[in-house]
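Need residues for this backbone.
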């Protein structure tokens, strides 16, 4: 310990010294870009640098890039990419900054390309599509579309970014009805490693189009997405809060909800449990995509008495506005998937309430856990196939995507928080494997850095993704220079 502190101090001194002596190559690159782009370049000495480099979701991903570039349009971005690639400099790409994977959307040294100024929303009522900048938050997208009484298949928490969510597949309240978020993209505008702007759609560069539906930052930088729009505006739903004791009953109800003969695709739920915080217990988020109170699809939950009930008729945007972004300092999460099975559900309920890791996490400073169960119907997967397919390798079965969030306070607890949470996920995976319900899919948007997400897309899909990456990025820039995030194996 003492030795590494001394070593760190020495390294710090060397850095301080060399930055006085001469500009680092990254600094020189930043200066070159600044000459061309002016105030689109934020340097370490600028007033906004601190806020931008610590934006935003989790302190575990804060970093110190040599500079942050916020290009305003595709032409500027092509200049930035050509210049950075020409210098073989390391870089990262950020849209909303909500990834919890260190280095995925931020970088120490190197250039952070921040998409914040790609922020326009254009609605084409004739084609029924919305073209949205990749640097937007979902709130801005939905509120721009609300006057037209339409929405898009997008994120469920309004502060989250558009770019990363879509490129990771994207789970929406509209998924059972229309597929994943990526399945509803009709065109990606992309700046490739060669510094050119291309469209990727069913008709232009269809291989790239397919690859981007879950291919993350492995192929290029997306400037805007054209998304199908749907006539959905007024809805019913909100949250019901229960004590943790209600969990077995809630699991029974969730089992019934998922196994009826024809699940209503307008109905969606997310069930969450907070075993480290007895005052919250469990929260059921119900969303019905029509203005109809208490639809039949939610009948299995009716007999469980909530502590609080906020369900009501409201617009879908209002419903999502009511879901606050939790205030956490350090965050990680893990994902796991399994099919619908009564016995497995009760084994999971046991793990959630009794695993010794729960107490170990509670014992960390501000240690907290949130489990989230996200039921996905086979209809969501089939909708993806119908719109041309994606590389995710999903099977058309009714399944649940579990997300396990962990929050804590101190950097020195990073490893423990990681290990305890992983250990719980391993227990759940063991149970689902033993009962034959394991689903070989790890949802990227809910996955930890060390979960092998793309590996699980399947051999054939991985081979196709790699071939596509070689075609559009022959020098493997998005593997070697933009090396953070979920990379091709
Ligand atoms: C409170 C909360 C709620 C959430 N709810 C949902 C949900 O409902 N559905 C869901 O699917 N996910 C959800 N997520 C997960 C979310 O999708 C991921 O955190 C995702 O990474 C966020 O996207 P971003 O643009 O904010 O991320 P960033 O951190 O900016 O980016 C994530 C990754 O995508 C890459 N990337 C981003 N933009 C581009 C681009 N334009 N071109 C190329 N690569 C790019 C980045 O390099 C990075 O590797 C939620 C997360 C939080 C914190
Ligand atoms: C950047 O400079 C241009 C003029 O040079 C100005 O119009 C613009 O508002 C500035 N942008 C920001 C974010 O300061
Ligand atoms: C949206 O719906 C409201 C209420 O039904 C209606 O008054 C309004 O004209 C609609 N707007 C558009 C652009 O269709
Ligand atoms: C992409 O498609 C749009 C809409 O069809 C078109 O206006 C634009 O010129 C295309 N861009 C490229 C680089 O081909
Ligand atoms: C999934 O559930 C729906 C009803 O909710 C059912 O119709 C469908 O057959 C199920 N799919 C599979 C593959 O079992
Ligand atoms: C439990 O949640 C409540 C409400 O968010 C919060 O005020 C409280 O601090 C939490 N307690 C613990 C132990 O995390
Ligand atoms: C958690 O802390 C309490 C109080 O310090 C202690 O009694 C308990 O053994 C700890 N539990 C674990 C699992 O470490
Ligand atoms: C976390 O787990 C890894 C791998 O098993 C182990 O090497 C490491 O020591 C663990 N860290 C802590 C703090 O327990
Ligand atoms: C710069 C920025 O977006 N900061 C936000 C980070 O997240 C907190 C709470 O989650 C917000 O209050 C900040 O505005």
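Answer:
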């Amino acid at each position: 310990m003492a030795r590494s502190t001394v070593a760190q101090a020495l390294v710090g001194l060397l850095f301080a010294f060399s930055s006085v002596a001469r500009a680092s190559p990254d600094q020189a690159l930043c200066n070159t870009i600044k000459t061309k782009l002016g105030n689109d370049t934020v340097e370490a000495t600028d007033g906004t640098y601190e806020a931008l480099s610590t934006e935003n979701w989790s302190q575990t991903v804060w970093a110190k890039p040599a500079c942050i570039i916020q290009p305003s349009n595709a032409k500027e971005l092509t200049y930035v990419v050509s210049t950075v690639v020409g210098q073989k400099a390391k870089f990262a790409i950020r849209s909303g900054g909500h990834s919890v994977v260190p280095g995925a959307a931020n970088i120490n040294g190197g250039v952070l390309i921040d998409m914040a100024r790609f922020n326009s929303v254009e609605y084409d009522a004739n084609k029924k599509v919305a073209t949205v900048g990749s640097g937007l938050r979902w709130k801005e997208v939905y509120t721009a579309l609300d006057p037209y009484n339409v929405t898009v298949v997008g994120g469920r928490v309004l502060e989250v970014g558009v770019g990363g969510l879509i490129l990771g597949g994207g789970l929406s309240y509209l998924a059972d009805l229309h597929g994943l978020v990526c399945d509803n993209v009709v065109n990606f505008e992309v700046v490739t490693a060669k510094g050119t702007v291309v469209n990727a759609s069913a008709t232009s560069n269809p291989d790239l189009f397919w690859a981007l539906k879950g291919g993350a930052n492995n192929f290029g930088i997306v400037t805007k997405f054209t998304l199908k729009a749907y006539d959905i505006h007024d809805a019913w739903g909100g949250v019901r809060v229960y004590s943790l004791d209600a969990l077995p009953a809630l699991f029974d109800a969730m089992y019934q909800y998922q196994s009826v003969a024809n699940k209503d695709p307008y109905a969606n739920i997310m069930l969450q449990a907070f075993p480290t915080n007895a005052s919250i217990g469990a929260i059921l988020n119900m969303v019905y995509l029509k203005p109809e109170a208490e639809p039949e699809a939610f009948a299995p939950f009716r007999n469980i008495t909530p502590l609080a009930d906020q369900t009501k008729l409201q617009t879908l945007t209002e419903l999502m506005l009511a879901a606050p972004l939790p205030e956490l300092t350090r965050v990680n999460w893990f994902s796991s998937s399994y099919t619908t099975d009564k016995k497995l559900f009760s084994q999971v309920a046991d793990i959630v309430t009794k695993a010794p890791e729960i107490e170990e996490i509670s014992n960390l400073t501000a240690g907290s856990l949130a489990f989230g169960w996200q039921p996905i119907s086979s209809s969501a997967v089939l909708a993806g196939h119908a719109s041309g397919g994606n590389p995710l390798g999903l099977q058309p079965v009714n399944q649940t995507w579990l997300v396990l969030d962990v929050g804590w306070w101190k950097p020195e607890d990073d490893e423990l928080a990681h290990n305890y949470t992983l250990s719980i996920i391993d227990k759940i995976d063991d149970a689902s494997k033993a009962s034959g319900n394991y689903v070989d899919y790890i949802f990227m948007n809910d996955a930890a850095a060390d979960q092998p997400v793309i590996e699980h897309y399947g051999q054939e899909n991985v081979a196709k993704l790699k071939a596509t990456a070689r075609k559009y990025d022959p020098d493997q820039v998005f593997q070697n220079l933009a090396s953070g995030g979920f990379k091709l194996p």
